């Protein structure tokens, strides 16, 4: 299944666990991920914008070909284990 830039806007994913999920090519806009864990997720070209990702653990899969992007997103006390594209983050 191939996705072409689906936008998920305004959802609250707080206290969620994403494990072995493929969230590639998704755009999360104005979403809340506070206290969530994303473990071994494939997130090639995934965008997080205008979102709250405080206290999040993000461990994306080594099969991720393009790093996720964080644009105007709050990342307070967030752990990201690999490189990521950051722009306007707090």
UniProtKB/TrEMBL annotation:
Lineage, top ranks: Bacteria, Pseudomonadati, Pseudomonadota, Gammaproteobacteria, Enterobacterales
Name this protein carries in UniProt: E3 ubiquitin-protein ligase SopA
InterPro entries recorded: 5peptide_repeat
Enzyme class: ligase
Gene that encodes it: sopA_3
Natural source organism: Salmonella enterica I
SUPFAM superfamilies registered for this protein in UniProt: Pentapeptide repeat-like (SSF141571)
One Pfam entry name: Pentapeptide
EC number: 6.3.2.-
Top-level taxon in the UniProt lineage: Bacteria
